[in-house]
C-alpha cells in the first residue's frame, strides 16, 4: 500500500466530506472563517535519509523545510503568515547543528516568507533520523485558493522554473552521476528554489488549476488531470532544464531517458498550472517581469490520465510517473 | 541544552513578538482573525519508544495522539474543530497496524472531539521509530483562551482527575513495578483520560490561569508559576491518586517518595488551574455534575517558583520537577 492508497482508504473518511479538506487530495486545505475570509493551511514533513541527506548542512535543511511548504502555498495562490514547527531532533546531533537549522529556518521564514511568524510547535528528542514538520497558515490572494481541480480540455499546461535540477543534484552528491555537471544543481537539491511570494498573485490571476511539483512532473500532472477530469499531455522535449542538465541530456546516449529521469525525479517545488490558451502569453510576460521563467509544457484534452510525447510521438510513461512514498 | 532552553534561545525570536504566540511559552497559540474571533492552535508530537512503547497496540497510539493534543485545548478553554496529521510510518510496520492507528485516531476525533474534521496532513515512510504529530485547531469557548499566565497570590490550585496513574501504568508494563497494582493503570498510560469537552466551559468560567499536566505536576505548576509571577505551593498529600496508587503509596516504605514519583512522572493530561478562593466550591460542584473530579491542591503566593509540602512541612523538590526532553 502506498501513501495515496493509505490516505484514500484510511484517512479520507476522517475528513467527513468537509469542503475545505478537498477529500485530502489537494496540497493544502481551506479553513473558512465565519466572516467569509479564510486561511489556506499546508503541512509537509521532511525526514533525514528520505528528503535530505544526513550530511546536508543543517542550515540548508531548515531552508528546505520552509520551501517545501512555501511551494504549496504559492501554487494555491496564497501567502504565508504563520508557522508551526514540530521538530524531532536526534540525540546524536549537536547544539551547533540545531542552531544552524534554526538559523536557516528563521531566515527563510523572515526573508522568503514575508516575516511569517512562528506561532508554536513541539520540540522532542529521539533515537533515530531527524523528522521535522512545518505547518504554514496563509491567506489566499483572492477569495479562495486555486485547486488541483479546475482544468478543462483546451487549457495549456505551464510550469515555473526548471525541472530535474534537484534530481541531478542529488545524483551528483551520491556519486551516482559522474562527472559532476554543475555544483549549483546540488545546491538546488539542498535549497529548493520555489517561485517567490509575488508570483502567488499571478497564480490567482491566470491558473484555473495548479499544484506544486514535488512528487515528479509527470506524477503531479497526473494528480491535476485525475482531479480535474482531463488528460494532461506533456511534450517532454519542452520540459525546462537547467543549462547544465540540458547539455547532459543532449549528449546522453538516450536523451528521452535523461528527460524522463528529470520529469519523474521529483523534489522540484515549481508550480504547474493549467491556463486558458489566450492568456499564456500574458502569464509568461508578467512572470518574466518578476524574473520567473514560465514554460508552456503541453495541453489538457478530454480524458482522465497523463500522456507524454517526445518530438511529437507518444511515449510510454512509468506507471507512477514519480516517486511515491511506500507506506506499510 | 534541553527543550525549554532550545525553544527560548533559538525559536522564540522567530515568533517576532506576536501576541498570539505567547513567546512560545504556552500550550497553544491564538490565531486572531480580522473579525475579532480566532482559533486556538496546538500541536504535539508522539514518538515510538519515547511517548509510547513499540508494543503498544496501534489503536491506542492513535487515541493517545488525539488526547495529548485535546488536553491542551481543554486546558485553554477551547473546543477542537479541525485536525492536521503528520505521520511518519516505519517501513517495518504492517498495514493492519496502520489501519488500527487510523481507527483509534478516527474514533477519538469523532466521539471524543465532537466530530473534529481531519483537514489535511502529510504521510511519509521512514526507517526508524514511528513519529506522529497532530495539530488541533479549535475555537475558544469565550472570546479568548485561558493562558498559563493570569494567576495571582491567593488563588487556589486545582487539578482534574488523578495524577500518576500513567507513570505507575508504564512502570507496570516495563516490569519495573511488581506486583502489578491494577491493569487499569497501564490502560491509562496507553489511552490517557483528559477531561471531556464539556469541561472546557468550566475552565473558561473558573480558571484565571491553566495548563495541561504533561511534563509532570510539579514541573507544570512551575510553568504556571513562572509565567504568572507567583509561587505555587503544592500540598503533596492532597495530590489525587487512583485508589490502587493510593494504596501502594500508603503501604510504601516512603510514602512521600511514592507521591513525588507520581507528581513528577508526567503523561497525566489533566488540567491544572488557578481559581479564586471563593469560586473553588462552585467549580468542584459544577465539575462533579459532569462526572469530573476536581481536587484542591494548594495555593498561589507572592514569588516566582514552586514549593511542595508534605503533611504541612516543606519538602525539597527535584530541580526540574518533571521529565524534560533532552535536545542536542
Describe the fold and architecture.
The structure is a homodimer of 328-residue chains. By secondary structure, chain A is of the alpha+beta class. Helix content of chain A is 34%, strand content 27%. Chain A contains ten helices and twelve strands. In chain A, the strands form two sheets. Chain A has a seven-stranded mixed beta sheet with strand order 7-9-6-10-8-11-12. In chain A, strands 1-2-5-3-4 form a five-stranded mixed beta sheet. In chain A, 58% of the residues are buried. The interface between A and B is large, with 73 and 73 residues.
Layout of helices and strands:
The structure is a homodimer of 328-residue chains.
Chain A: H1 3-11, E1 29-32, E2 38-47, H2 58-75, E3 78-90, H3 95-112, E4 117-126, E5 131-140, E6 156-160, H4 165-174, H5 183-190, H6 200-206, E7 207-213, H7 217-228, E8 230-235, H8 243-251, H9 255-265, E9 270-275, H10 280-289, E10 294-302, E11 305-310, E12 313-315
Parallel strand pairs in A: 3-4, 8-11
Antiparallel strand pairs in A: 1-2, 2-5, 3-5, 6-9, 6-10, 7-9, 8-10, 11-12
Helix pairs in contact in A: 2-3, 4-5, 8-9
For the report, how would you describe the main beta sheet of chain A?
Answer: 7 strands, mixed
Mean pLDDT of chain A: 93
Oligomer: homodimer
Q: Let me know the number of strands of chain A.
A: 12
Span of the ends, CA to CA of chain A: 6 Å
What percent of the residues of chain A sit in helical stretches (DSSP H or I)?
25-40%
| Greatest chain-chain contact | A-B, 73 and 73 residues
* Individual helix count of chain A: 10
Shape of chain A: globular
- How are the strands of the biggest sheet of chain A laid out side by side? 7-9-6-10-8-11-12
Return the structural class of chain A.
Answer: alpha+beta
Sequence of secondary-structure elements of chain A: HEEHEHEEEHHHEHEHHEHEEE
Which residues of chain A form runs of ≥5 with pLDDT under 50? 323-328
Amino acid at each position: 500500500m502506498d501513501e495515496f492508497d493509505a490516505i484514500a482508504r484510511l484517512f479520507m473518511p476522517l475528513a467527513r466530506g468537509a469542503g475545505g479538506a478537498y477529500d485530502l487530495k489537494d496540497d493544502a486545505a481551506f479553513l473558512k472563517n465565519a466572516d467569509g475570509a479564510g486561511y489556506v493551511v499546508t503541512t509537509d514533513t521532511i525526514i533525514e535519509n528520505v528528503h535530505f541527506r544526513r550530511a546536508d548542512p543543517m542550515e540548508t535543511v531548515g531552508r528546505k523545510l520552509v520551501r517545501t511548504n512555501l511551494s504549496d502555498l504559492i501554487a494555491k495562490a496564497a501567502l504565508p503568515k504563520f508557522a508551526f514547527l514540530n521538530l524531532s531532533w536526534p540525540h546524536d546531533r549537536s547544539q551547533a547543528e540545531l542552531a544552524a537549522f534554526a538559523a536557516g529556518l528563521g531566515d527563510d521564514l523572515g526573508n522568503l516568507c514575508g516575516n511569517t511568524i512562528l506561532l508554536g510547535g513541539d520540540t522532542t528528542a529521539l533515537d533515530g533520523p531527524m523528522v521535522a514538520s512545518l505547518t504554514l497558515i496563509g491567506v489566499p490572494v483572492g477569495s479562495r485558493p486555486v485547486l488541483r481541480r479546475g482544468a478543462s480540455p483546451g487549457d495549456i499546461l505551464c510550469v515555473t522554473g526548471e525541472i530535474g535540477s534537484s534530481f541531478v543534484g542529488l545524483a551528483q552528491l551520491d556519486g551516482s552521476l559522474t562527472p559532476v555537471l554543475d555544483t549549483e544543481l546540488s545546491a538546488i537539491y539542498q535549497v529548493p528554489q520555489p517561485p517567490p511570494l509575488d508570483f502567488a498573485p499571478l497564480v490567482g490571476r491566470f491558473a484555473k488549476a495548479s499544484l506544486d511539483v514535488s512528487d515528479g512532473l509527470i506524477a503531479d500532472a497526473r494528480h491535476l488531470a485525475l482531479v480535474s477530469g482531463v488528460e494532461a499531455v506533456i511534450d517532454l522535449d519542452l520540459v525546462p532544464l537547467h543549462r547544465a542538465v540540458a547539455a547532459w541530456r543532449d549528449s546522453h546516449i538516450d536523451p528521452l531517458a535523461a528527460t524522463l529521469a528529470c520529469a519523474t525525479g521529483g523534489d522540484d517545488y515549481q508550480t504547474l498550472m493549467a491556463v486558458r490558451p489566450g492568456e499564456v502569453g500574458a502569464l509568461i510576460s508578467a512572470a518574466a517581469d518578476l524574473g520567473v521563467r514560465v514554460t508552456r509544457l503541453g495541453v489538457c484534452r478530454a480524458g482522465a490520465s497523463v500522456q507524454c510525447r517526445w518530438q511529437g510521438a507518444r511515449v510510454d510513461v512509468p506507471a507512477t510517473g514519480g516517486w511515491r512514498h511506500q507506506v506499510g
